Amino acid sequence: MNKKELVEAIAGKTGFTKKDSELVLDAAMETIENELVSGGSVKLIGFGSFAVVDRRPRTGRNPRKPEQPIKIPASKAVVFKTGSDLKKKVNK
């Protein structure tokens, strides 16, 4: 499902116009993004949680030249952990 299909599904379930549904979706995504950028997390009970984790620097290998190690710098990554309700529904 892409964004357009998601907007259409939201509009169908809520009775909002597609334009209003897109505004709501954009606002929700922007709010989640802003919270993660500021170092926080977003927890949606039953659905899951978004958080930022630190990845330490490490050494990698180029498959084409395995004898030459590559230094991979430290970075941050966004992770999503599914909630128990969502996990149960997916595994039915």
UniProtKB/TrEMBL annotation:
InterPro entries: Hist_DNA-bd (IPR000119), IHF-like_DNA-bd_dom_sf (IPR010992). Keywords: DNA condensation, DNA-binding. Gene3D superfamilies: IHF-like DNA-binding proteins (4.10.520.10). GO terms for molecular function: DNA binding. The keyword Hydrolase does not apply. Belongs to the bacterial histone-like protein family. This is HU family DNA-binding protein. It comes from Gallibacter intestinalis.
